[in-house]
Amino acid sequence: MNRRRVQIAVWLLAWAVFASASLAQEQAQKKEPAEKKEESKPAGPQVQDIVINLYNPCGVAVQPKTGHVYIADSGNLRLLRFTPGKGEQAPSIAEAVVGFPKDVYGKGPKYDIGPLGLLFVSDNLLAVGGGGNPDGKEVLWFFDVSQIKDKPIQTDAAKYTAGPIPPGEKTNRGEGNFYALTLAAGAVYVTTNGDDTKGWVARCPIKDGTPGKLEPAIATKPQVEVDAPVGITTSPKGKLVVGQAGEINVPEDSLLTFYDPASGKLELKLETPLYDIVALAYHPKSGTLYALDFAWMAPDKAGLYRLDVTTGEKPSLKVTKVLQLDKPTAMAFTPEGELYITLIGTAKEGDKYTPGKLIRVSGLK
Amino acid sequence: MRKLPLLVALCVVLLCGGRVRADEPYELKYPQGLRPMKIPQDNPLTRKKVELGRQLYFDPRLSRDNTISCASCHDPAKGWSNGERFATGVRGQKGGRSAPTIINSGYNRFQFWDGRAGSLEEQALGPIQNPIEMDMTLEEVVAKLNKIEGYRKQFQEVFGTDVTAQGIAKAIAAFERTVLSGNAPYDRYKAGDKKAMSEAAVRGMKLFFGKANCAACHSGPNFTDNGFHNLGVGMDKKEPDLGRYLVTKLEGDKGAFKTPTLREIARTAPYMHDGSHKTLEEVVRYYNKGGIDNPWLDEEIFPLNLTEQEIKDLVTFLKEGLSSPDYPLVKPPQLPK
């Protein structure tokens, strides 16, 4: 019975994806006069809805060789796999991993959450930051996605887990909510939430493709005096780039910070006009840094931003808004420079569908 | 020939007769532990403006019945608060919240417990117009002060105008920015003087930044994250004060109030936004039990499991470690006539 329900749900989801995509194309064709094709091409980045009706999606990763897009459909406690269309082959979506534990996050609105940050550690090994367990019991999951065939696998089929980080000398309540992940200097670095006097970035070494022990590595708050590391990525020079989200009810308090992964030493701290940086990513071709701002207290400020950092004696930061977005949570570039972004979205009163979606942004530089 | 500049300088000094120029900058001296403050570009600190602000701050003529000044509720002798549970205004009227300290308020991102003012300038005119505080309209207070020659003259010097509401706000804000507390035993300890605090205070400091979780919100040089948090205080009442929510209408802000500075905390009792806790011991015990549960309780409020000794040590740190020997005790000036 459950399997049948899942099949129906997947079918509905897939139908919704195709219906949305085709509708967008039809509208574009109707608006475009034949004789002015060149002039009417949009100059800025183009945005396309890819998967709709997601429930609090909080993570996304692109598999390096296949181009498959994995989505943390967090509120539904599962991972989805989106396969982009190619030639005659239609795009498809399927459940990949199900059965993640559930927690409730926030004070208003309250969000059901399960899996959070996603990262491909190697061609097939997908790391998943957990968010559904209490602080001190949360784990980092590692799945061999080549093992996922026609049916989704359960979380207990994970190839490895790392963690938890229980209460102890370094963390007064244990760590949880593994928001975002990046790979640097032979280890997975994870932004965590738990001991807010420290604001830990945790480290999980990867040796011969096998994860080691997950441990608190960089206490960000004593160094920057602002709360909550959330967004994280690795710079082209191998530095850890951490977005310190700040307080959700304080405007323009997010920081952009750079750490040496080996020593954990803060190398650069830049104030930003952003509210809550939740994701960071470098464009794979241009090396341009982008950030997502969730902006809990001012949704009109939320969106995708371009961050141009000037280093030297007087480091500076230029911030440019690229797109207005509705509660963005995570992003991942394809090797070609297309950007996938997950959005929680705003539910309409009485709406029986969840408003979360995955969008694809093309034309970024 | 080289003596000429010296002679010119001497002449200038003699001609000025040691008088303060209207635009002579006021140089803020930051005590150890504090960082440079962001001063609004449209309200630079000048010596004359700060002095004018000091007079306005202490002047009860800003209230309807000439009984209440800013200093009535934010008294330098009482930690720049009033030592009472609530603020008291004209005709003995009581407000519903305690009077927050002015100390280091120039660093605050928001003013008032609910953050409804984004700057000291914006805040300064609020109590004047509040019917249960000073009970004046801006038109009335401007007209009243313009009848005082000493104020008219100073406003002309500082702002080039008669008394205006904007000028009142700027002058009071400028004065308030000079009320600083730093160089506390904690600052000296942090700077390397390991004898600056007692052993009990050092143990309390470690709890503050660790097990007791205080630094989750009371962080940075001014011991505040400038955010708003629901600690559960008063949330068990039939109609609780919803704090920040009344300003933003965001569900997650219900019952949340601004994180206050902890500098000079020993002088600013009673505590919490409603002055409901008389002592720091009470405050620490409240946190230790995990606050009062409610749907919007901050995730940073949870039972701490502190021992009796740890409670004592933490209170010692708060009292001893954050009290400066250079407390900013400003005396009331002579008011203009």
Search tags:
heterodimer, A: 365 residues, Neuraminidase, disordered N terminus, B: mainly alpha, Cytochrome Bc1 Complex, Chain D, domain 2, 12 helices
Would you write up a description of this structure?
The complex is a heterodimer of chains A (365) and B (337). Chain A has 365 residues and is mostly beta strands. Chain A has helices at 2-31, 221-224, and strands spanning 46-54, 57-62, 69-73, 78-83, 92-98, 103-105, 111-113, 115-120, 125-130, 140-144, 153-154, 160-162, 181-184, 187-191, 200-207, 210-211, 215-219, 229-234, 240-244, 255-259, 266-271, 277-282, 289-293, 303-310, 316-324, 328-333, 339-343, 356-362. Chain A has a single domain (47-362), classed as Neuraminidase. In chain A, the strands form seven sheets. Chain A has a five-stranded mixed sheet with strand order 2-3-4-5-11, with helices on one face. In chain A, strand 6 and strand 7 form a beta hairpin. Chain B is mainly α. Chain B has two domains: 22-176, Cytochrome c-like domain (Cytochrome Bc1 Complex, Chain D, domain 2); 185-321, Cytochrome Bc1 Complex, Chain D, domain 2, CATH 1.10.760.10. Chain B is 34% helix and 1% strand. A two-stranded antiparallel sheet of chain B has the order 1-2. Chain B is globular, with a radius of gyration of 22 Å. Residues 13-17 of chain B have low confidence and may be disordered. The A-B interface holds A 106-109, 172-173, 195-197, 221-222, 225-227, 247-250, 253, 296-297 and B 109, 209-211, 213-217, 219-221, 225-228, 230, 244, 248, 250-254, 256, 295-300, 302.
